[in-house]
UniProtKB/TrEMBL annotation:
Keywords: Cell outer membrane, Lipoprotein, Membrane, Palmitate, Signal
Name of protein: Outer membrane protein assembly factor BamD
UniProt lineage: Bacteria, Pseudomonadati, Pseudomonadota, Gammaproteobacteria, SAR86 cluster
GO CC, one annotated term: Bam protein complex
Pfam families, per the entry: YfiO
Membrane topology: Lipid-anchor
Transmembrane parts of this sequence: none
Gene Ontology biological-process annotations: Gram-negative-bacterium-type cell outer membrane assembly; protein insertion into membrane
Length: 355
């Protein structure tokens, strides 16, 4: 009697062949699909391919539009739709969220078609690509300050919009570019102020002065200018440059009399403490250590002079911070001297009582 079952060795051989052929079959199918995708417009007219790309763009199929415009360029690099396809490609990249590709395509269009009627649009799209790139997905849901992020893209965008306005002042895109430049100017000025404050906290007064001066010299109408003038005045004072402090204070008083660092008499109020978190303060989340450091003016105090226009006022009731006791530190502030701040008058009373 013959069995209908196939020999085991033969079954193993067929299984091995199937396992070997399956990947090859899959690769062949993918290769054929890719070739058919690349050759789908072979024999088509330039107008047909362009219309297909535009239809994809109108239906927000940006990846398909990009592929079609690229295929059009490959098949008809010098055709009648070549220039238009290039500028449409810039927009397709922009809508697809590919900022770098959009800028590269815009640069290529400007280089190839410098006299084209759409070259101003290319400059506009260059600026807009990086302008919109800062609106990250995280920023859409969380309140973030864009002035505290890397300003590289903002500077590039500002430069691109400036080129558009300089070269094409009557362009229909010039008005919108100017409005965006104002926003970018304020953003860049705020960034410099953040950096200046960072340097102040670390007592790098010269670096803080340079950042503030850059704001005054380059972003004159930005809302951050008054703060920059305040920083300059205090940094000149801390560096002992009294004449420059006089001149800067005169400008601050005349142009920004409502500055928060001017008292009712127009005198400049100097900050006597600089935030400087210690390592212990940072690692214990403020439970131990201190985040304040007394920073005297350079060289110590500004000498009074009747022939100077500059005056400054130290905060009244100056507070002195006592050191925390070891017992207070070990008990996490529950027992012992907590190092609470005392006013100068309280210290004087303590001294009088001791005497």
């Amino acid at each position: 009697m013959y069995s209908n079952q196939k020999p085991v060795s033969k079954l193993k051989h067929q299984t091995t062949v199937k396992r070997f052929l399956s990947p090859l079959l899959l690769i062949s199918i993918i290769s054929i699909s890719a070739c058919s995708s690349d050759d789908q417009f072979v024999g088509s007219t330039e107008e047909f391919i362009y219309n297909e790309a535009v239809d994809a763009l109108r239906t927000n199929a940006f990846s398909a539009a990009i592929a079609n415009f690229q295929q059009l360029e490959a098949l008809f690099p010098f055709g009648q739709y070549a220039a238009q396809a290039q500028i449409e490609l810039v927009y397709a990249y922009y809508r697809a969220g590919e900022a770098e590709s959009a800028r590269a395509a815009a640069d290529r269009f400007i280089r190839l078609y410098p006299d084209d009627e759409n070259v101003d649009y290319a400059y506009y799209m260059k600026g807009l690509a990086f302008y919109m790139e800062d609106a990250s997905i995280l920023a859409r849901f969380l309140p973030t300050d864009p002035s505290k992020r890397d300003p590289g893209n903002a500077r590039e965008s500002f430069t691109d919009f400036a080129q558009l306005i300089t070269r094409f002042p009557n362009s229909p895109y010039a008005t919108d570019a100017r409005a965006r430049m104002i926003y970018l100017r304020n953003l860049l000025a705020d960034y410099e102020i953040h950096v200046a404050d960072f340097y102040i906290e670390r007592q790098a007064f010269l670096s803080a002065l340079n950042r503030a001066r850059y704001v005054v010299e380059n972003y004159q109408e930005a809302p951050a200018v008054p703060r920059a003038m305040e920083i300059m005045t205090e940094m000149y004072l801390r560096l002992g440059l009294n004449d420059l402090a006089d001149s800067n204070l005169a400008i601050l008083t005349e142009n920004y009399p409502e500055s928060g660092q001017l008292n009712e008499n127009g005198e400049f109020i100097v900050s006597t403490q600089i935030t400087d978190p210690s390592f212990l303060y940072s690692v214990t989340f403020g439970l131990l250590g201190s985040n304040k450091r007394d920073t005297p003016l350079a060289p110590s105090r500004r000498p009074e002079s009747i022939d100077t226009a500059f005056g400054f006022q130290l905060p009244t009731q100056a507070q002195v911070e006592e050191k925390r006791s070891l017992l207070n530190i070990l008990t996490l502030g529950m027992i012992g001297n907590s190092g609470a701040q005392k006013t100068q008058e309280e210290n004087n009373e303590d001294e009088t009582t001791e005497n």
